[in-house]
Amino acid sequence: MLNFDWLSGVSPETAKMIFLGLYGLIGILVLMIPNEYIYEGLKKEDRHWYNNLKLWSLGVLTILASIYYQF
Amino acid sequence: MLTGIDYFIVISYIVGMLILGLYFKKFVNSSEDYFLGGKSLPFWAIGMSIVVSDIGALDFVGVSGQAYRYGVSVGNFDWVGSVPAMLLAAFIFIPYFWRGGMYTIPEYLGRRYNQKVRTIASVTWILFFALDLGVLFWASAVLLNVLMGWPIWVSIFATAGVVGLYTYFGGITAVIMTDVVQMVIMFIGGFALVFLSLYEVGGWDNMVEKISTMGPEYRSHFDIIQPSDTKSPFPWTGILFGLTFVMANAYMIGNQAIVQRCLTAKNEWHAKASMIFASALKMLIPILVLFPGLMAIVVHPGLEDGDLALPMMIKSILPPGLIGLMFAAFFAGLMSSVDSLLNSTATLFTKDIYEPFIKKGASDQHYLKVGQISTLVLLIIGVATSPISSDFPGIYVAIQTFMSYFQGPLFAILLLGIFWKRTTQWGGLSALVIGIGSAIFLNVFKQRFFTIEEPFLYISWWSFLVGFIINITVSLMTKPHTKDQLEGLVFSSKILAKNKTL
């Protein structure tokens, strides 16, 4: 059990889908965060779209998913 | 191996770092300036500092060597083993620590659980950092000696002198701002090697084709997901459960050297942004450290020791001048690791040990001086103890293993501490002690319990689970904390609405 033998039937292809699914789930959770919280600390006049940390996070997750899809 | 231009580059780099670091002395007027940079730093500097502190000269060689042996699966540590944890840290944990005005992670544990948990966590980190310092000095100096013929004590004294001076005077601001330059140097040197190596092997596609036809042992070199029954240390089950769910989170959320940087941010947005920016940079690290190892399979096939892959590539690929730059990149890796250890250990000692146990209620200037003296004492200890490593060749791995015992239980108490208000001080304390005990037990009897060679990922997961269950069980049997005690310390969905107070 400690060696995760019970998961030995899961193929690497399925495992890859699990990882990609995880990135998708994280992306959805990030999208659910309200903008007010994302911009906390910035003045109202400084809150531009490029300061939206949701976009930054989704960008990072997209690159990460591409790497796992590629390899 | 080094030519005149190489020496010029390396010496200019070292002198430049000293001048730059000492420039930040004038910004240090209080202990908050020294430990938290006066909470004034921008996200980009902090993000770059996080990335460069996380990678040392030894990692360059070690990861390339693992890529030579196991292929791209070693990249999991910087990809899935960093990005999700850094997002969790950015959006949940860092805002709590930053808003709470905390200096250390054990300080949070002390407020959330009790002083004993804080002290155990802090002493463990201090011991780890202090031991690591001497070992890091020696191992890196030996590496530089092997690679470039640079005398061991010259490397140690040059690093200790330069880093010691700017860390002593400039505190964390000097550490972070020198890290920025160190990251740029590291990336320029690393990418130069990657591009020239790619040219040498005839491009990426050509390299993949050549490696794939080299034999059955290279068949899965380009598979990032390894089957659960692989003999390599990176089965996907270990990567998912041990690395992604536990070690990565413990490292990015519970490691003082990482989190302290975010606490220097000028506001909450910069604190969050620093971690996300660092996660983007972190994804580039495997290109620097992993790809040269892969390309060495084509250029230098059949090496018995994979750790020779990077040195061989440097010698055979880089022209004079760029070798000096690569050498400066190794120095940058060493310096950024040493300055992080010094400043973080001084912070832990001053805030978690000295202030509560040795001298309460002293002036701010007194604690500033204690922080500076701690830095100096640690540096002397690090240099003095570094030769011990030559008598105990396995000590570097032993220290890293020791730290992995701590990661699972630490993350268990951090996670439950912030997400579950019913967690009590006794739950946290027993989870930490029993969790660490279970990790040690599993490691001692690893040959009996595990089938893979180095099961540290599995040990992290199971010790996390033990800590998690113990924490819940003991907490349910003990008196809950009051609402006032939990104020500002437990996650509330209110922070996702418009309520600014935690």
Which spans of chain A of ≥5 residues are poorly predicted at pLDDT below 50?
none
The whole-angstrom Rg of chain B is 22 Å
E-strand count of chain A: 0
How big a fraction of the residues of chain B is strand? under 5%
Descriptive notes:
The complex is a heterodimer of chains A (71) and B (502). With 71 residues, chain A is mostly helical. Helices cover 59% and strands 0% of the residues of chain A. Chain A has helices spanning 12-31, 35-38, 53-70. The longest helix of chain A has 20 residues, at 12-31. The two termini of chain A are 28 Å apart. Chain B is mainly α and 502 residues long. In chain B, 74% of the residues lie in helices and 0% in strands. Chain B is built from 23 helices and no strands. In chain B, helix 10 packs across helix 22 (456-477), helix 14 packs across helix 15 (309-317) and helix 19 (395-419) runs antiparallel to helix 20 (425-444). Chain B is globular. The N and C termini of chain B lie far apart (58 Å). At the A-B interface, helix 1, helix 2 and helix 3 of A face helix 5, helix 10 and helix 12 of B.
